[in-house]
Model the fold of this input.
Amino acid sequence: MFDKLQQLRDELGKVLVGQTEMVDGLLCGLLAGGHVLLEGLPGLGKTLAVKTLAQAIGGSFSRIQFTPDLLPGDITGVQTYRPETNQYEIRFGPLNANLVLADEINRAPAKVQSALLEAMQERQVSIGGKTMALPEPFFVVATQNPIEQNGTYPLPEAQKDRFLLCIRLKYPSRDEEAAILDRMGESNPDLHVSEVVTLDDIRQWRMALDKIHVDARIKGYILDLTAATRPENSMAAELIDVGASPRASLGLLACSKARAVINGRDYVLPEDVRRCAVDVLAHRFMPSFEAEARKLKAADLIEEIVRQVETP
Done:
């Protein structure tokens, strides 16, 4: 399993420069059976990363460019009447794919966001009163610009909670950006990668996560981190309005197992939990007005919690 995962990472590296945290986060979401939200400014490689991943795993891929005039049926599918047969026919929407890129999800109205998030949770869509199962594996990667909010519909916290991971992208280093210029500066850069992983491989990897050993002390560490995000247990309760739910604990456990597999181990270390903590917890966590006044973001508070909670 580890060898194929390494091949997949190497294949993605033929196109992507840097952004190792984003790549590892996408692989964690893919292995753990969750969905990923990418937050970052335009031009940081979000769309390119997802399209490249789709090529490398050989599954069906669709991209939905979210706009304010989109309707739920535009993404789930519709029932159409065929006069020649005098029957109704179901036409699937772009959600009927193994890997779905929901580009700029915060530009779609609430009904469309809800339709997408329902499909993410239930792995099915309802069209014309009929429930249709989505392909397996079904993996959604959504993107949003955290700065530009004009004409957008920000995701409510309860809907963000449906994403297993929220990965915040940073600018590349100078050396990485120089490599991007060398690789992408041509008029027709080679962005093709080979299919190195099959959908059956992904299904088997997901089942193999159940066999990853997690010591009782590691589970206790996960519980301690999640509990520390709640105002009644936190050392800085005045900075927190709403803490993470038990879904966050489950997500942290699943991502820690996935990161252990990516690193070639069949057991979880505290380092795996620490590396996942911000991406799993920060978007399920609401800082208080006091924290905002101090210009402290959710990720900053989670990092401080990780430093304060005792490591087993």
